[in-house]
Design a protein that fits this description.
Layout lengths: L2 H4 L4 H10 L9 E4 L4 E3 L13 E4 L2 H6 L3 E2 L14 H12 L7 H6 L4 H12 L3 H18 L4 H7 L5 H12 L10 E8 L6 E6 L2 E7 L5 H10 L3 E5 L3 H14 L16 H12 L6 E2 H7 L6 H9 L12 E2 L12 H22 L1
Parallel strand pairs: 2-4, 5-8, 9-10
Antiparallel strand pairs: 1-2, 1-3, 5-6, 6-7
Helix pairs in contact: 7-8, 13-14
């Protein structure tokens, strides 16, 4: 069985998605144009070729192996690649000297075009590089206050000459005053690159709190709830949980991991946590239904409530809501988009089939 081919959607659906530039198919497949020798994302804004001149591949590497070149407009290699070398080098420099103020002149001296950097950070972090730097410094100040530093010291160490300016910036970023910061829980976030498009991961000291695709419509509302309802102060950063989920996700998409080990922390109602616990029990490569989960909870008439709790799940893939389907076998809704849901199910089913074949 060919694992790559098993993960592709039906041909007619891929043609439709290509012609309509459907962004929900980001990373699900790539289009390769025989007449130009170029391959693209299905959402590429370039003029669409005739369907008979296109062939489809599951991975960018497959396109390259078939002799196609990456499109310069939609840059399909970026969908499966980590941050480019020039961004990685800059991030390493920031880690080495977090207090350095990066001016446009300094960026140009490092061979980095400021406008290009601004666009990259807006696309991948939702903010400019300089806004990211400010938030990162404020996150370090938050950590210092949590450890007992005075507000004056935190403001000075963050580069603020005015205490009122520091308070205003702090409250704007974290939705709390510096005085209340000692009682808040820092929630660090980072961007992860996956074959299905970029994701955001958030974790606190107890475990992973959120893992979502960046284009999920409910993402902004989820983050606001974590801030306002659960008292989190959100800041860019890294911790062991974020490093672990990045490694485990890569193994999962490679078909080498069937069970996630990253610790989770799941703020929510008691009923929601019960539903999420049942989600975690659905085996890799198998599916369940809302009705089945309701019955397991001793509430056979609560299918709709189970569906709502399933929709409030903030941790995609790890808590496998993609394995929940309708009673009639339909895929039903999925926050990351049904094409991604279908891809994940095909990925798991194909990996299971390969494992079975190798066992014989």
């Amino acid at each position: 069985m060919n694992l790559q081919n098993a993960m592709l959607p039906p041909h007619a659906e891929m043609v439709r998605a290509m012609l309509e530039r459907d962004t929900t198919y980001e990373g699900v497949f790539f289009t390769a144009v025989k007449t130009t020798g170029i391959f693209c994302r299905p959402s590429c804004t370039a003029r669409k070729p005739k369907p008979e001149n296109v062939e489809f591949f599951a991975h960018a590497d497959d396109c390259l192996s078939a002799g196609y070149r990456a499109c310069l407009r939609c840059k399909p290699l970026d969908a499966a690649a980590i941050a480019p070398d020039w961004v990685q080098k800059l991030l390493q420099s920031v880690d080495a000297d977090p207090e350095l103020r990066w001016s446009d002149a300094q960026l140009l001296a490092e061979g980095i075009e400021p406008l290009k950097l601004r666009r990259w950070f807006k696309q991948h972090f939702g903010m400019t590089f300089h806004a990211w730097l400010r938030t990162r410094r404020l996150g370090m100040a938050l950590g210092g206050i949590k450890q007992g530093d005075s507000i004056d010291s935190a403001a000075f160490d963050s580069g603020y000459e005015s205490l009122s300016g520091f308070r205003d910036a702090f409250q704007k970023s974290f939705h709390i005053t510096p005085g209340r910061a000692a009682n808040s829980e820092p929630l660090l976030f980072t961007r992860l690159t996956t074959p299905l498009g970029p994701m955001i991961a958030m974790a606190e000291r107890r475990g992973l709190v959120l893992l979502e695709f960046l284009d999920r419509p409910a993402l902004t509302r989820e983050v606001e709830a974590l801030q306002n309802r659960h008292g989190y102060a959100v800041a860019p950063g890294h911790n062991a949980h974020l490093q672990q989920i990045e490694t485990e996700l890569a193994q999962y998409f490679a078909g080498k991991l069937t069970e996630f080990k990253v610790p989770l922390h799941l703020p929510g109602t008691e009923f929601s946590r019960q539903v999420w616990a049942e989600l975690a029990k659905i085996p890799y490569g198998q599916t369940s239904t809302y009705g089945t989960i309701a019955a397991l909870l001793g509430k056979p008439g609560a299918s709709r409530a189970v569906g709502l709790a399933n929709g409030h799940n903030r941790i995609s893939i790890v808590l496998p809501c993609h394995r929940v389907i309708g009673a009639d076998g339909s895929l039903t809704g999925y926050g990351g988009g049904q094409p991604r849901k279908a891809f994940l199910l095909r990925l798991e089913n194909a990996a299971v089939q390969v494992t079975r074949q190798l066992a014989f």
